[in-house]
Amino acid sequence: MQRVQEQARQGERKSTGRADADRSQISHPVVIVGGGPTGLMLAGELSLAGIDAAIVERRVGQELEGLRSGGLHARTIEIFDQRGIADRFLAQGRIAQVAGFAGVSLDISDFPTRHNYGLALWQKHIERILTDWVEELGVTIYRRCEVTAFVQDDSGVDVALSDGRSLRADYLVGCDGGRSLVRKALGIEFPGSDPTTSNLIGEVEVTEEPKWGIHRDATGIHGLSKLDDGTVRVMVTEREVGAVAPPTLRDLSDALIAVFGTDYGVHNPTSLSRFTDMTRQAASYRKGRVLLAGDAAHVHPPDGGQGMQLGVQDAVNLGWKLAQVVRKTAPESLLDTYHAERHPVAARVLQNTMSAVVLRREDERTKALRDTMSELLAMEEPRKRFAGMMSGLDIHYDLGEGHELLGRRMADLDLVTADGPQRVFALLHDARPLLLNFGKPGAFDIGPWADRVRLVDASHDGPWELPVLGEVKAPGAVLVRPDGYVAWVGGPTSAGLTDALAKWFGPPAAA
Q1: Do 18 and 82 sit in the same domain of this protein?
Q2: Between the CA of residue 255 and those of 220, 227, 247, 358, what are the distances in Å?
Q3: Cβ atoms of residues 305 and 98 within 8 Å
Q4: What does the alpha-carbon distance between residue 9 and residue 4 come to, in Å, rounded to a whole number?
Q5: Are 285 and 339 contacting, i.e. CB atoms less than 8 angstroms apart?
Q6: Among 346, 387, 388, 415, which residue's beta carbon has the most beta carbons within 10 A?
Q7: PANTHER family annotated for this entry (predicted)?
C-alpha cells in the first residue's frame, strides 16, 4: 500500500500486474471521487449513457459542513430541463432574478429562454434531489469511505479505499473539491492567487436582537438575516485571512465582536464555514485515465454564485464524451476536448470573480468605480453581456468558423414532428445526440451513426434567438450534442455532416 500511495502522489503510470490482481477487487468502468453536485451529475450522465459509474463519498448522507451554494442560474436549470428533472428543483425553490455582478442585479426576464430567471435553493436540497435521481438510475455510492490512493496503468486505474476495499476502473474522475486528493496525487499544477480576504458564514441562534441587514465598513461586507425557523444567518468578513482549518464558533464570535462590538450571544450553530477569495485553476483537467471536474479543477470566490454551476456543467460536458470512450465508439482523444472547452469557461469565471472582489472594497476610489459600474450595467448592451456571462447562457465553445449557432447552446424550440408537438429539450432527456432536419423530410441519411444519433424531421415557426446576440439566421439542420450544444449547422446540403458525426460520435460503424 505504501508503494501504491507513493506512485499515486507522483502521478506515475505503472503496470500493476493484472494477472495477479486481487480477486476481491470490485470493477466499475468509471469511479467518481466525491458525491457533491458535480459528482452526482456526472454519475447521472454516465448512467443515462449505459455506463456503470460508482461514487466514493466520505459522508454518510448528503449533509453539508457549512453553507454552500444558494441557488441555480438559468443555464443550469436548462441543463436539468434537458434531462427531464428541472421540475424537481423548481417545485422546491423560489424563482428569482439571481444573476448579478458586484452587487448589481441583472434582470434576464427578456432573454429568449423558458428559464429566464434563477432559482433560490440551498445546496443541501440540490444535492438531495440529485441523489434521488442517480439512485433511480441505479448508481452505486460507496459511503463512509475515502479514496486513499490510486495508480493507473495502460488499461485502467486501481483505487484504494479507506475501508480496505479496492476498486478497479477504466477511468477515475476527481470531483473531490478544492483540496482535491486526486489533483494533488497526479501532481497537476494549480496556479493562481492566495487569499487576501476571508468570510465566515453560518446559521446560529442568538440571545440578543442583531443589527439586521447588510453592513459595509473598511473590513468588508457583513450581514445578518432571520430565517423562517427563527435562527439567524450570519456572514461576516474577518479582519485577517482565516486559518485553513474549519472555523469554530469562537472564530465567529470574535469576528462579530470586531465588527459590531458584540457577538449577539451566538450559540448552537447548525452550520459554519469559511470562504476566501483564493483563485486557482488546474493547469490540466486530465492526466492519462484520471480527470478533474468541479472545484477539483478550479476554485474562486463565491461572488455571483457561479461555482456549483461550473461543476454541473463540467459534468455534462464530460459525461457523454467519457461514455463513448469507455464504450470504445470514440477514440480517447475525444477527452482532450473536455479541457479545451471547459478550461476557458472557468478562466472567465475566475476573472469576473476577482473583479467582483476588488469592487467589494470600501475606500472612496472603489466606491466611485462601483458607482460607475452600476451606471454602465443599467445600460442595455452591458447588462445583456454581463447577464449572459453570469447566467451561463452565453457560453460559446470554439468549434471553428461557421454559423452563429455553432458551439452555442441549442434553444428549447417548440417543434412540429411526425410524432406531434415536441420541445427540443424533451428530445435530449436520454442524453443522446440529436440531428434536427428543418428541410425536406428524409433529406439526411446517417446510416453508419443511426444507432448513436437520433434523427428527427421537424419544423419550427418563429425566429431563432440567442441570449445577448439576438435573432440569427434559421438553419436548415443542426446537430446537437448530448450536452445541448450545437456541433454542426447545415443548409440545403449536408456538407460537413459526416466529418462532424465522426469527430464527436466516433468513426462510422462497420456495415
Answers
A1: no
A2: 12, 21, 11, 21
A3: yes
A4: 9
A5: yes
A6: 387
A7: BINDING MONOOXYGENASE, PUTATIVE (JCVI)-RELATED (PTHR43004:SF19), TRK SYSTEM POTASSIUM UPTAKE PROTEIN (PTHR43004)
Question: Which positions ≥6 away from 380 have C-beta within 8 Å?
Answer: none
Query: Quick one: pLDDT at residue 5?
Result: 40
Closest CA to 101 of 372, 364, 465: 372
Same domain? For 210 and 155 the reply is no
Tens digit of each residue's pLDDT (9 = 90 or more) over 341-370: 999 999 999 999 999 988 888 889 999 999
Q: CA angle 357-361-363, nearest 5°?
A: 155
Residues 291 and 168 in one domain: yes
Asked if 366 and 487 sit in the same domain, the reply is no
List all residues 6 or more positions away from 167 whose beta carbon is below 8 Å from its beta carbon: 25, 26, 27, 28, 31, 54, 56, 142, 158, 159, 161
Q: Please report, for the domain that includes residue 268, its CATH number.
A: 3.30.70.2450
Residue recorded with cell 494549480: 190
Strands in 118-120's sheet, in edge-to-edge order, are 71-72, 118-120, 94-96
CA–CA dist 181, 34 (Å, integer): 10
Region 215-241 average pLDDT: 88
Domain boundary among 238, 255, 276: 276
Cα(425)–Cα(242) distance, integer angstroms? 44
Q: DSSP 3-state assignment of 360?
A: coil
45-87 pLDDT tens trace: 999 999 999 999 998 875 655 455 678 999 999 999 999 999 9
Contact 122, 308 (CB under 8 A): no
- Report the distance separating Cα 502 and Cα 511, nearest Å: 15
The pTM (predicted TM-score) of the whole model is 0.92
Residues 297 and 377 in one domain: no
pLDDT at 64: 53
